[in-house]
Fold these 2 entries.
Entry 1:
Amino acid sequence: MSNPSILILPGDGIGPEVMDQVTRIIDWFGAKRDLAFDVSTDLVGGAAYDAHGTPLHDDTMAKAQEVDAVLLGAVGGPKYDDLDFSVKPERGLLRLRKEMDLYANLRPAQCFDALADFSSLKKDIVAGLDIMIVRELTSGVYFGEPRGIFEEGNERVGINTQRYTESEIERAARSAFELAMRRNKKVCSMEKANVMESGILWREVVTKVCEEYPEVELSHMYADNGAMQLVRAPKQFDVIVTDNLFGDILSDCAAMLTGSLGMLPSASLGAPMANGRPKAMYEPVHGSAPDIAGQGKANPIACMLSFAMALRYSFDQGDEAARLEAAIEKVLADGARTGDLMGPEGGTPLSTTEMGDVILAALDASL
Ligand code: IPM
Ligand code: MG
C-alpha cells in the first residue's frame, strides 16, 4: 500500500520557516516510527500570486482535493495589501476551505503549564485550560450572497450577508457534539439570537441535534457575552460551537489566553473521502507575521501541533500525536523559548531552527 499523502503549502511570511521545521518532524516519523508520508509542496497566497498571478493555482487546488491531508503555513503580507480583492492571498485560503468543503474548524486552546505566566490573564484563571472551539468554516458572512460594494443613489454601500442553512448548522453542531463526547461532554453554542434571525435558527438547530447526544450538557450564550466569559472564566468551557465570523474572533481571543498565538494549531475537517479519511487541512492559527518573517525568530510549535492534529484526525495515530505533543511540552518545561515566549526575566531566545533541534532531540529521547 502506498504511503499516506500530504500536500505542504508553506505560503507567506513566517509560513516557510515554520514549515521547514515541521518537515523535519515529518521526516523523523518516517525514519524512526515507520510512518512515512508522500510529501509534496506547492504555493499558496502571495507566493502563488507572485508566481502565477493567482493566490491558488487550479492545479494546486486539484492536488489539495486528492491528498490525504493539506498542511498550510500562513498567507498574506503588506506587500499584497493593495491587490485587487479577488487575488488577495487570503482568497487562496478561503478557496481551499470552500472547495474542499472543510466545514468544521477545530481550534483547541490549551494552556501549557510552563507558559501559564505568559498569559495576559492571571495564572490561576488559565492554568490547565483546555477548550476546543468548533468554528463553522464554509458559510456565514464569509461566503453569503449578495456581497459587494454597490452604488446606491449618490453613495456606495458595502454588503455582506450572513446566511446559514439548517444542514450547514447541523453538520457543524454534530462535529462539536462528537468531540464533546470524547471530552468533558459540555457544549456551549454561541450566536446573536437576540439580534439575528440566523442566530435564532442556529440555536434551534443546535438544540435539535443535541437530542441525539443526551449525555452532553448544552448551553447557549450570546457571542458578545461569550467573548466576555472567555476572558473572565475560560475554564467554564469545554467545547464551544459557533459560526464562521464569531469563531474567527472568539478563537483569537481564546488563543491569546494561552500565552502566545505561536502555540495554537487548528484542523479543518470535511466529509469522509472514499478511503474513510476526512477531507482535511491543518494550519496554525497565527498569521504570516511579516514583522519577523525571514529572521529565524518565529515559533514553529503551532505548526508542529497542527501536524500532531493531522496524525490524530487524518491518520489515526493518536499515540504518535501524543508523543509529539509530549515532546513539545517537555522542551517548554525545560525552558526552551522562542522570542514570542520570552518573559520579563529575559534570556536568549531560541531561533526557529534551534526550537526544531530541541524538539527533535526530545522525540529521540521518547523512544
Ligand atoms: C483565520 C484567519 C483567516 C480568517 C483569514 C486569513 C482569511 O484570520 O484563519 O482565522 O479570517 O478566517
Ligand atoms: Mg482569524
Entry 2:
Amino acid sequence: MIIDQHTALYGVVGYPLGHSLSPAMHNGVFLETGLNAVYLAFETKDMGGCLQGMKALGIRGMSVTIPHKSVVIPLLDEVDDLAKRIGAVNTIVNSENRLVGYNTDALGVLKALEDKIELSGRNCLIIGAGGAARAVGFIMKENGVRLCITNRSNDKGEALARSLGCPFVPLKEMGDIHADLLIQTTPVGMYPHDDQCIVPRELLKKGMVVMDIVYNPIETKLLTLAKIRGCITISGLWMFVHQGAEQFRLWTGREAPVTSMIKLVEMELGKSG
Ligand code: ATR
C-alpha cells in the first residue's frame, strides 16, 4: 500500500471508540479495490471541531458513532431524509466541502434481512428503544412490516412506539406477543457478557426469523437458542457489513465487495476472541 499526496482520508469518530472493527474492514476494502485511501480512528468528544477539521483538511468521509449520532445533525450542511426521520446520522460524506449526513444502519439491517426473507406483511417485535432500534423501526415500517416495541424502560419504549405509530409492551410481557420476526437491538449478549439472553425461550417458535444486531460474538446466545428452537437466524455481522458497504458506496460511488468484507470482519473477530 502506497500513501502519498493523493491519498484520500476517511475515518470513524466517537467517544469512547473501544475496539472498532471499521478501520480493519474499510482499509481491507480500499486495499482490495485498489483505491488510494486510508481509514483511521478518531476518538474525540469534539464533534464540531471534527467537522471543521473535515472541511479544513479535505477528509472525504466519516463514520459517526456513540455519542455523536444525534448531536451531529444540526451541525451538518445537509441531512438525508431517512436519517432525519430516524434522528441519527452514522455516515458523513464530504461533497465538495459540503458535509452531508446519512444513516446506513437502517439500510444495513434492511439488506441483511432482505438477503434471507420477504419482509412485507411480517409481524416484527423489536427489543430495545435506543438509536439502533429507531433505525431498525423506521426502515421496517417503510417496508411494510407491522411493528411492536418492547424495552426495559417503559418511558423510552413508549416514546419510540409513539413515533413509529405502533404498540409497546413491557419487557416482562414479551412472551405473549405473536411475531414472526424478532430483532434484538440491545447490547445484551455482547462479548464479554456473551452468556446473556434477554428473550424468553417460549417466544422462539419454529420458522420464526430471529436477528440479533450484536455481532461479537457472531452467534450470540439468543441465536444459539433460536437455532435449537428451529428459527431462521441472522447475525448482526450481516448488518454491520452491509452498513459499511453502503458507506463505501456513498464515499466512492462503487459497489463494495460484500463477501470479502464479511471475511475481513470474521477474521478480525477471530483475533479479538
Ligand atoms: P444504541 O444507540 O446502540 O441503540 P442506546 O441508545 O444506549 O444504544 O440504547 C440501548 C438500548 O438497549 C436501550 O433500549 C436500553 O434500554 P433502556 O431504555 O431501558 O436503557 C437497552 N438495554 C441496554 N442494556 C440493557 C440490559 N442489560 N437489559 C435490557 N435492555 C438493555
